[in-house]
Amino acid sequence: MNIITIGRGPNNRIIINNPHVSSNHAELQIDDYGNLTLNDISRHGTLVNGRKIHKTSVTVNRGDKILFADIIPLDWNQIPSIQSNNNNFKHNISIGTNADNKIQIYNEQVSRYHAIVKIDKKGQLFINDQSSNGTFVNGNRISKYVDFPVNRGDKVSFANVQELDWNRIPKSSLNPTYLILSLLLVLAAGTGIFYQKAIKELLFRNDVSRKYENSIGLIYNSYYLAYIDHGDTLYYIGEDFKFADLRKDPYSKNSLKPFEITGSGFYVSDDGKIITNKHVAAPWESDLAIDKEKIEQVINIVRASHGEYSVNSKVVGVVVKTGIFPNNSKLEKDDVFKNMLPCSLVKLADEKEVDLALIQLTSQKLPALSRPVTDIITRKEEITLDDDISIFGYPFGFNLALKNNEGKIKATFDHGKISKISDKYEIQYNAPSFHGASGSPVFNKDGKLIAVNYAGIEKSQGYNFGIIATHIKKLLED
């Protein structure tokens, strides 16, 4: 994917010095096959063959009459013929945060379409940087929009934060798609069983995403911590662990900024019940979301300020705002919470090891087109080691959910395999998981809910964990 940015600003690839043209007016996207898509992001719009578009995307053809701000024509001589260039390469592997890349990377510093790894007919490797924050080869930043020669094993870093995994770059000169199809046909001729199984596994991922894309949402929670002694709220603790003394000034809490956390959740009933993690719905009850040691330090300061200590003192959470943004809902700039559906906490899992919580829509009614997840395993024995799984959620919260989606909150859909099943509470898998994906549903190859994602080791993406879904039943019981 190649993106040509157009506008008045100095960082655009095509700069138009005209006051009617926006600083960032439009983007012309050229995919690996030479198909062209024009995306208008301007204030005054763009004319395409006499038809005005504004804040939307249209397919265009080379030679179409395109006018920016209705007066400045696009010079097609400035647009590279990507298709003819790519014909020289057997492989073009696009890399970036957008979901349609062949290698998708989850990092806020990486661009939507960051770079392309190219392999020519002789097997020579090249990398073409198309990003804002650069691509680095063996520590040196390479020039933009240039096919830079590299060797397999070179240290290639995107935005200097995410290294290229060479295992994901094909070695064989054979087209892997043809190789797979040939293998399937040979095996199908023998028994037909393997063929049917392989096709089923290739299709299940799309089936699960279509089935449950309206069953999930991004969970938002803001809250204070309150220090209570003998039933009286004496102090409020806010972000950065600053605190307000309510004895001296009852309104001093207004100067504090509440803690904020985002996660993922999914509907489990028609009356708007939602499953998420305990550390998302009630962070003060979990070591995963709050720095307990830091809180203890603040409490000691509070107690010293209070001048006395009582065995009846405690710290509790005070919710400011809890809600769910349905998948594909829009985040409005003038009111970011306009499309958030308010929720309230219903119940937390009793066991400390079970990081699950039940919240419910205040309206007790699902939004239009939404459906609950009801196909849930009832026995741990239904989980199979090395089974394919899919996880639906919002890694990096608002930042990645909004990126590339025209202001819409959209979930990512990732895949992996089960690598370990614990005795009682959890499973382990290698599907990618980052902060913000807490509370994401995990489905098996049959589309059954088998777990709820809750923890992982970000620097080692083979170690991510989910609470086994059989524990949901207890939360749903009255």
Automatic annotation (TrEMBL):
InterPro entries: Cell_Proc_Reg/RNA_Proc (IPR050923), FHA_dom (IPR000253), Peptidase_S1_PA (IPR009003), Peptidase_S1_PA_chymotrypsin (IPR043504), SMAD_FHA_dom_sf (IPR008984). SUPFAM superfamilies: SMAD/FHA domain, Trypsin-like serine proteases. The keyword Ribonucleoprotein does not apply. The chain crosses the membrane at residues 177-195. Gene3D superfamilies: 2.60.200.20, Trypsin-like serine proteases. It holds the Pfam family FHA. This is FHA domain-containing protein. Residues 4-53, 93-142 form the FHA domain. Keywords: Membrane, Transmembrane, Transmembrane helix.
